[in-house]
Amino acid sequence: MICRWIVLNSSKVSRILSPFSSLLSSKSSFSVAKLDDEPNTSTNFSSDHRDCFDQEILFDMKNLGFREYLHGQHFRGLVSDLRQTHVEDVMGELMAESPDLSVWFFKELIDVYGFRHSRFSTLLVSHILAAQRRFNELQVILQHLLQEEGSGSAYLLCELLSSSFREWDSTGLVWDMLLFLTSRSKMVDDSLYILEKMKDLKLNVSTQAYNSILYNFRQTDKLWDMYREIDAKNEHTYSTVVDGLCRQQRVEDAVLFLRDCEWEDVGPSVVSFNSIMSSYCKLGLVDTAKSFFCTVLKCGLVPSVYSHNILINGLCVAGSIGEALELAGHMSQRGVEPDTVTYNILAKGFHLLGMISSVWEVIQEMVDRGLSPDVITYTILLCGYCQLGNIDKSLRLLKDILSRGLELSSVIPCSVMLSGLCKTGRIDEALSLFYEMKANGLRPDLVAYSIVIHGLCRLGEFDMAVWLYDEMCNKRIHPNSRTRGAMLLGLCQKGMLLEARAFLDSLVSTGSTLDIILYNIVIDGYAKSGCIEEALELFKVVTESGVTPTVATFNSLIYGYCKIRNIGEARKILDGIKLYGLVPSAVSYTTLMNAYANCGNTERVDDLRREMKAEGISPTDFTYSVMIKGLCVAGKLEKCEEVLRDMSDEGKTPDQITYNTVIQYQCSVKDLSKAFELFEEMKLRNLDPTPATYNILMDGLCLYGYIEDADRFLCSLQEQGVDLSKFAYTTLIKAHCVKGDPEMAVKHFLQLLDRGFDVTIRDYSAVINRLCRRRLANEAKFFFSLMLSRGISPDLDICRVMIKSSDVAAWIFKSGLLPD
DNA sequence: ATAGGGTTAG
Predict the structure, then answer these.
(1) Other CB atoms closer than 10 Å to residue A720's CB: what's the count?
(2) What is the DSSP letter of A619?
């Protein structure tokens, strides 16, 4: 009996007695009044005491209510002392009394006390529940068991089932539920093991369980084997096959299958159509998806929220936001209401179009309609803030998201934030967020690692990048081509080509399958550094190892030859592209054109333009800017007008780079008013000037001695909060030095430091050099001291310049500032 | 069972 067990097994037995004290006082003589306060008092239980917990008391206890008893303080104190064997004993005894009681006891231990049950007691209760057809409860406790046991537990469970429960009538149901749950929990091997055992024991396998197994195999070639094994197929079976075929990129087969099974019992379901629509949308064939939507209607079926959302999403991705909105607006008429997903899709659609304010409106409407934004909604918002460069706002939002409860999916908003921080160079904050994630139990995944590694590499922080790369490998998160690409790209951009190549070779030697992108990055790295020999050698490795080059591979080689000014060879590479069965791209032509444009060879540029046209390759904005640059270099401005006309004929407007090119040309021919006219024009056209635009104008003003204008220009830009680059300042600083207005030079230089620009020895050197030449020794000294105070040591160049100016030299020697 | 969020060489 439970009471006897409690008396015999618990060290805290004294506490148990008190709930019954009132009961006991009337029935027996012993008192428990003080025992609670004195837990160490040893209590001697004689056989008399044990007798107190006899049938009669158990009976009374039941009358009093186990529930009250077990919820009492006294029982709670006992739970930590419960052992598996005790529970099983109690369960056994309770079973004899009443199965319901034992089930209740079992569940109470789990729900109230978080107790971990043995396999045996769980299976025992499972059989009771199965016999009573209490399937929901059965599912809950078996799921609980499987979570605790983990993968690979099927063997032991099957052993136990067939040895101890074979006689139970309900055992088949327990087996089947176990099969269903292992399959649904993606414990594929366990589910297959159970399935085999069930077949051996000739137990019935439910369609639900089979469907779940089929679902796990839907993306593999075992799909049909599994399908054929199922005797009692239902709607789910068919829709799973349809979905599987869709995911295997076999939409046509899916459609055929759907048509065939129309003749069988149930007819096609909306779910199957949804899978097919989703597939066509992903292939970019929204119109086909739409026609299936019509088919659904024609079949007399009702498109679900899913159907609508799938199509709305397809339309958004295809850029047809108007049509997407229209469809969403018609949902109510079809008897379905837009849900959070619908609004998220629309919000993302606007985000893709860069219409951030509309993203806001969509979310507002969603809230107005009483729907709650979810993690995904917030993630889209977060993307928007990051895209607008509002990193601090993003950080606040992320904090807000995370404080709403850490879901497993919260890794994604963190990744968005990581990406935002990395892109704005705030790598330290990215790293601390990364650590914070780990500390909060959010395990960074492949994407999160890749983003941070990419960010580190871009800044040349390779030690840390390699460290994280190793860490992710150790955590069995396998780097993919992008992660590796980030490492290679970073190394190449820092000019560390030997290291990049060593890394690439190490990947080859460890047997990783390398895709062409990784080779392309290193080939491009060689080409950009003017190492055409190495680029060609690696290209040879590519072709010899059976990897197919892409146009990008050849484009890098073209660039490489252009870089070393061997345009002839570059041209030969262009012609060679077709020999590999590839088509030259706009980049191929533009790169070559750029080489000709740089030396003002407009005839060659024109030739290439004609060739492009003949090949049916459309010029890009970049191509046009190169053509215009060529004309500017050659001084044929009148022809620029012609090209600009061609552009507008094609519906293209010149981009910022093109404007910059022409503005630079106007500056170079001293027509500053024309230059500023163009500057105003580009603003009128809603083209944001780039930092380079300001630099060009600033340089132009300074070059022709309009320094006061340049000062005013800088001031007004600062007032407008324009994003200026360091160059705008240094140009002006140099001009003031040359002109002999060191005060202004100092003023601007201090601003440069104030605004947190990375001021290097080159910048100090440029100023000191010019000041010394103008014999402005005191100012030169000032900058020299400033440099030292910022922790920068003078190099040989600066010392040489300073020494030449004898006054300064004496000062340096005197102050002992010269390095060894 | 079917829908929505994060990385991306030139």
Answers:
(1) 8
(2) P
Q: Which region among A48-52, A94-98, A657-661, A695-699 has the lowest average model confidence (pLDDT)?
A: A48-52
At A487, is the secondary structure helix, strand, or coil?
A: helix
Using the Cα atoms of residue A712, residue A714, residue A715 and residue A719 in order, give the sign of their dihedral.
positive
Tokens 């064939």 belong to residue:
A285
- Strand B: list positions under 7 Å from protein Cβ: 1-10
What are the distances in angstroms from CA A29 to CA A43, A62, A64, A278? 15, 21, 20, 77
CB of A242 closer than 8 Å to CB of A258: yes
CA distance A468 to A470: 5
Q: What is the DSSP secondary structure assignment for residue A584, as one 8-state letter?
A: -
SS (H, E, C) A683-713: HHCCCCCCHHHHHHHHHHHHHCCCHHHHHHH
List, in sequence order, the alpha helices (H) in A510-620.
Answer: 516-528, 532-544, 551-563, 567-577, 586-598, 602-615
Instruction: Measure the CA–CA gap between A208 and A214, rounded to whole angstroms.
Output: 10
- With a pLDDT cut of 90, the percent of chain A lying above it is 43
- CA A100 to C1' B5 (Å) is 46
- Alpha carbon A16 to chain centroid, angstroms: 55
End-to-end CA distance of chain A: 92
A447/B7 CA-to-C1' distance in Å: 6
Provide mean pLDDT across the span A159-184. Answer: 95
Model confidence at A260, pLDDT cuts 50, 70, 90, reads: confident
Q: Are A570 and A595 in contact (CB under 8 A)?
A: yes
B10 C1': nearest CA residue: A552
Q: What are phi and psi of A581, to 5 degrees?
A: 75, 20
Q: pLDDT tens digits for A738-771?
A: 887 888 888 888 888 888 777 888 888 888 888 8
Determine the nucleotide nearest to A307 by Cα–C1' distance.
Answer: B3
The predicted pLDDT at position A815 comes to 66
C-alpha triplet A486, A487, A490: angle, nearest 5°: 80
- Residue A308's H or E segment, with its range, is helix A305-317
